Amino acid sequence: MASDEVPDQIAEPSEDDPQGQPIIVEGKRWGRAEIDAEAEIGESEIASFAATTIGELLEATAFLVDGSGQVPEVLVNGRRIANPGELDDYPKEALARIAILPRNAAAAYGFAQGKRVVNLELKRRFATWRSEAGMESPTAGGRRSRKLSIGRFAIDYDTRWNIGATYSHDTELLKSERAIPAQAAVLQQFDNLDRSNASIDPAEYEALLPRAHSAGVNTSATHPFGAFSGTLNIAANRSQSIQKIGLPPDTVSRPLRRHLTALESRQTSESLAAGLAISGPVAGWQSNLRLRYSVDWATTDRESGYCTDGPEQVVEDGYTRTAGDGGLLSQTNRLRSKSEAYTLSLTTGNSIASLPAGLARASLSLNAGHRRVKFTDFAPSTGGSYSSVTHSERLDGLVSFSLPLTGAGTEPFAALGKVDASATGAFRKVSGAPTNYRIGGAIDWSPVKSVNLRVAYSHENTEPTYDQLYAPRVEILKRVFDFTRGEYVQPLFRLGGNDALVGGSLESFTADLRATPFDGHLLSVDLGYRHARAQGGIASLPALTPEVEAAFPERVFRNARGELIAIDARAINIGSDVTKRLTSGLSLRWSQPRNSHQEAGKVGGAFTPWTITGSLTHRWELKSETAIRRGLSVIDRLDANGQARHSIAFHLNVGRKGLGANFGGTWTGAARVARDGAVAYRYPPASTFNLGGFVELGMLIRGAKTRDWVDALKLSLDVRNLFDSRRWVESPNRMEGFSRYELDPLGRTIRIAVTAQF
């Protein structure tokens, strides 16, 4: 691995200067954005985090960027890039620093209003191979997860390229591997078996979590030509999951133990994508033009039962397969889809005027796309199949302006401090739906450098997106709590498009205050308020409480015994929705001064300071109500629909180059679910804690005989749900709560990973 960093400011005393004053040579720092950063995360802080890749690092440092912890939008060396995830797999060591831009940078660079933006400043030169092997398993046993990855990454000024591959595998977790009681209906089925089958455990034929594997390859290359730069990206992925879903009644009712085979649900997805982008100045406007093609294949096979009539066979159409040596043939519901998409995107931005308070900037984004989806559904119960082909066009755009109003040079208004305004307008048009329009604006006020207040408002007519309208149907098994019967079940969830959706309107108001009372952003204080009101519009199907089931009886399917077997979970239209939320947070950043015990912090002769970063955030839901349909009563999610009013999250990271540890957790307040006006279930407060750390072996094995391969190794350890805690569900009829693994089948997990860079 090699890197080359040249200082951007050189200050040296001049022997010819009789007054001994230094001569300072200044230039724009490599990779710096046009907008000055409000804070920076330097190499020493970057090195203190256990994150291995840039993508992981952005998630780990999100709380330093914004009190909400939302992962920010990304610039690279001061410019937007065609694929925001292009650098996610790069080692974090490729970064010189992360520059946190002010809140108004989103409008200046063409991002959606309210987004925070960071600039990834890469090292001028960097090259390495990186490989990682990790294994994760719950302490209760029963499931093992493995992940392997390898990649080559190189940076040479404006030229960079990478190629990488990943593979992961998860074993299944059976009910028999957890102390979960069998449902009464299942036990009743096994009562019909003769003595030869008396030892059969039904839990061995049903999985809580499927066995799964995935593999992917990703390659990207960026190279300059003249004033422009071109990027080519190609990616391919394949994943599959297979889950046992129990035994069919027509099998367990017969003395056929040696032929008992669990029914399975199988999901397979494959994707291939290629993109080409060109970026550079056009008439002074920094522009990015991107063309992208992607194709996705998805398959769902769900066995619904066995056909025991006739001899063993394989039906020519492939919808029935041999299940065992006893001639049992499975009846399989099969879904197939192929989706092709073409996208052409243009983003451009520039300063448009020089105002007394600074430069006014404008940005424009346009996206056009075409999608073709072919879908096939075969149901053996009816013996028929259904096929469809849909075509859709999409056009959307965003224009934004950033205007500095007051500041230095705007006397007498300079006494107000720094005031910036931003405005955005956007539209989206999808075939088969009306045009969606959105307008918004924000004011940023900093009366002093350490305080910033941002107030923003937006209004839009919400219209369904392409996926909400036309996405192919997908059926998955999902573990949920059935409030009506008071049991955990695994019904079939139907997802996909709903072409009956219509639009509505949405208004939102936000106010955010951030104060940094100490130099170096030692401590940041965040306060935020959110108020959103929707009239009509679109939402996902809420958690299936009794009130929601009563409002959407056509979306819920139960068998003759009343057991929940399927849910149509496609997007829905709502009557109205109101949410009000207050957030608060503290974040801490401290680095060891260079003049304090420097010798204790040296690695390889270089001073590597200890750093401490931490955050504490509180979220208070003031109001959360929805009227699902006109004429129905308003549902208060906080009062009787299972949503907690308060939640707290914290994170603490202590480390330096080669060594670090982190500790974090969440706390969720009490919540309840009502049925027929009375409390049916109660969630007591619950907390979860996580612990992790890493060490580079070169830190432990020092001396002249240390080998290069030892220096290149890093060991990481992560313990999720450290105290194996869970969130209880209590009810008047079952005050002891539900069994440990009904709520959380995995419980505490331990992950060990070895990373090598060379």
TrEMBL record:
Keywords: Cell outer membrane, Membrane, Receptor
Domain of life: Bacteria
Subcellular location field: Cell outer membrane
InterPro entries, alphabetized: Beta-barrel_TonB_sf
Record-linked Gene3D superfamilies: TonB-dependent receptor, beta-barrel domain
GO CC, any one term: cell outer membrane
Region (Disordered): 1-24
PANTHER family (UniProt xref): PTHR47234, SECRETIN_TONB SHORT N-TERMINAL DOMAIN-CONTAINING PROTEIN (PTHR47234:SF3)
Name assigned to this protein: TonB-dependent receptor
Organism per entry: Erythrobacter aureus
